[in-house]
Here is the input.
Amino acid sequence: MGRLLAISEDTTAFPWMRRTPGYGLLAMPAMVVALLVGWWTGHPAAGAIAAGSAFTVGFAVFHEALASTVLSMSVLTLGIASGTLAGSLGAPWTPLVLFIAFVVAVNYGLLASLGPTEGWIGQQSGVFVVVASYFVNGPRYALGRTMMVLAGGALQILVFTIFYLLRRKSREPSSRLSHEEVPRRLHELLACLREELTLRGKTAPYVARLSLALLISTAIYRCFHVRNGYWIPMTALLVLKPQWTGTLSRGIARMLGTVAGAGIALALAHLLPFSEWVIAALVIVSAWGCFVLQAVNYALFSVFVTLYIVFLFRFGGFSQTAAAHIRLVNTVVGGAIALAIDAAWMAATRRRGVESRAESVQ
Here is the structure.
């Protein structure tokens, strides 16, 4: 019974006391500015990229393990920008994209072993790598996209810095890691890296499963030229967890949330004609919903994430109906790949355990 409750928690549990509407409102100004600048300058796609970066960096407020919110935001901004550049430059060559996907898996797995904040930064950086590696538009586009990611992150950092200065909080937004903390964290990372390279690390199985999931899902969408296929490895990256129950719980919740969100987006697309202003407002409302619900329920959070992405794509000039359909199919495929790999790995591990016990008895 306890195992079943653990699996269903991401879908059925609704601890509303964890909602965070205030921080959601605080994260919105940077996104509004990015969308408005994109619209005014006639480059809505660039505005959408900057808004997407501001959206991601805004979640750093819930990850303060790096000594301050602004420091976490700064590290994340550099991570997603460098990931965007690497993915964009490697996009034309499938073998290089597969190698980058492997690096993403190793990086995420290693950082996740250090702590939740480090793992989250590695995960989000990996997401931006996966997305950028889909768009084959040359070095100029790669630099432009990277600059928009940096601009969105910097804008979000500026908003939160001003907020903390106005609130006069006891902790300074620019506080740095102590002299003792920096060597300790570097030592942990290097020690973990040495363990993984010698195949003795505890995170080696997780890194191996992540690598398999990202390589298989990336190869599928690249070989079959799946439209917006980056959602397949992106979902696998977000769903796959160190424990099987975590993968199953997240996989079910994300797929259910995506189906519901895509259905709502499709219904709105058929029922209501949207102007650019209405679409921009829907982007902001759905993004705010993500911030409010990020700690309440993962399935409900996934509903708003789906709505946010669909409306953001529509603002950038992509068909809302097509975005909903494609995200739905690709999310299900990516989640299924993650679940299948985790299930096969667990079955193989149990079989080896049974064989080892049988040999010891003999």
